[in-house]
Design a protein that fits this description.
This protein has 713 residues and is mainly β. The protein has one domain: Maltoporin, Chain A, CATH 2.40.170. The chain is built from two helices and 37 strands. Strand 15 and strand 16 form a beta hairpin. The longest helix has 6 residues. The N and C termini lie far apart (64 Å).
Amino acid sequence: MSVRFGRGVATAASAVALMAGAGAAGAQTASPAVGLAAPKPASTQGPQPAGQPDRVTGRRTYDAAWFRTFAPATALQIVERVPGFTIERIDGSVRGFGGAAGNVVVNGQRPSAKSDTVETILSRIPAGRVVRVEVGPGDLYGAEFTGKPQVLNLVTSATGGLAGTLTGAVRRDYTGKLFPEGSASALLRSGKSTFNLALNIDNENTAQEGFDRVTSLPNDALVEYRYRVNRYREPVAALSGSWEYNDGANRTAHLNARAATDRFALDQSNWVDPTGRPRREDSLTSRTTVNEYELGGDVTRPLAGGGIKLIGLATRRHRDSDDLSLVDLFGSNGPGPTGFSQSLADRESETLARLVWNRSGWNGWNVEIGAEGVINRLRSRVNLFDLDAGGGQTRIDLPVDDATVRERRGEAFVNVGRALSPALRVDGGMTVEASRLTVSGDVDARRTLSFLKPKLVLDWRFAPGWRAQLSAQRTVNQLQFTDFISVAELGSDRVNGGNAQLVPQRSWELLGTLEYPILGDGLVRLEAGYTRISLVQDRVPTPEGFDAPGNLGTGTVAIARARVEAPLKTLGVKGGRLTLYGSYVPTFVTDPYTLTTRRFTNNSDFYGSAEFRQDLGSFAWGVLAENGTSSTSFRREETDRSFRGIYTQVFAEWRPTKTSVVTATLENALARPTYRERLFYAPDRTSPTPVTREFRRRNGLVVPMLTFKRTFG
């Protein structure tokens, strides 16, 4: 009987990253940022129409009045309407503070927290507290953003008193069940202090049905047909609080705290028809609990004509998971069900301190010098058992299923920049990183790593409206601690082996950007780049007969991206706006089994989207369509390819008052299904011809949702 390893362990609710609510309504009504953000150059071209770049700084500015057409209720809805800007998603597993910068700041600063997503932070700020939005090159907002083509600065008012947001939503699944969720936040400004308290309750519930068809190759003869129904439930609750003290430039302090809990549940029912044998019923259940806590703060004081900022952050995460896979529940082929059970428990912690000194206008240079120290630890244990028909269980030893991973990492950095002329700016920097990594338990591995990471950015405004940027830098990927640990996937016939010898990949990246405004406040942006990677992190065979995360040879990445955002008023469509985006990013590396060139594991070459939105006074409507090419996981004995039909979303909004919005949304409006194809090879992929094919289809389901948002203050 084959092991059925599958969807089992849920991904923990990650601590995704950018900033905390402490600065959400910090006082600022002028452009220069408080704290350590690099202020704009002393001279600018002067006031510009909304969306037109300043010829000196490249900054585009939109005041609050520009967004009234959209009747936004929160700062998030304002940011989502900024032409040509997309919030950068940060990997929640990024360790340290410097690597989680993102591309959004509030009043010129990144508060000292990582757990709340930027969308969550912005959704807590009432739209009425927003004075303006500025979008410009990253160097305008601090050296840690150098090289980012765009960083958005949300400038809030100094208005005192109480403000807040309330959000309620209800989602309906295909069975007719309703699932409510909501959030509430309150923000109080008194004198130089701002206090924020927020509660978020998400209630993700989805249902999925479809079939698996297993055939033998090359004749494609049916081996087994499975009808499956999956139900996922994931309620998440998070409570956040923060305090900000703002006494002007380089005289600020923040304190942030957050506690969150995540409860994931999967219940899967399978009706299986093997060729030539009786029908059987299988099942898979998975339960995961994640509790997370974070405490952070910072203080900034004047020093030597600039400011010095000390940041401290501590995060703790506890995850416990139990999975159970049973085959032949009613014993049609034997005395009782057989299967597998797995339990996983891990404890992860991060403690860091970061010290930064910043000074602008020092002989024409902006200078930032700093250092960061981080201690990370993961303690993980996995227990996998084979269950026999009589109820007995036998433990299955996995490579590296009981281990502790520790990392002590430090970095020192210097960043400098200056304007060489009114149209040309140069920024550069150097980071020195060193770490000591140990793995103990089932294996004993130790190594010391050190890297130099230089970067150089040229920003050129060579003609009215035109802007070009060229950046070159060396980057080093962070290792995922969970890649050191082995774990089974109950339901997919496979084990993810752990690899204590994994090392981070290193890249040289070259990227060019060209942008130009169109049709008033519209924008066209083109990007092209090339990346050369050594020690590509992918999947490799292990001596125990599994595959695991590991390092391949040299790989390359080509980058071509385009974004067009066009207001359609001048074309006769009142309140209309069209956004088109396309990304073609092929990757190339030599496969360790076939010795031929292939894509990186799970890389999708092309992604494209089109969005139309029309705002008509108190009403608005819009449609989004997106799709991408398939992605493939290249494993020892199989290739696992995932793809789907075009995804669409349709919405309609009604704004009964200036502070409230009602939105009706249809997710996956065309009910497109998703697909997965697994090709199996014997004994592994050194054999060029697959012997078995498993094709999965999950029916696309339309998910209606109704949301109400209201702000006050």
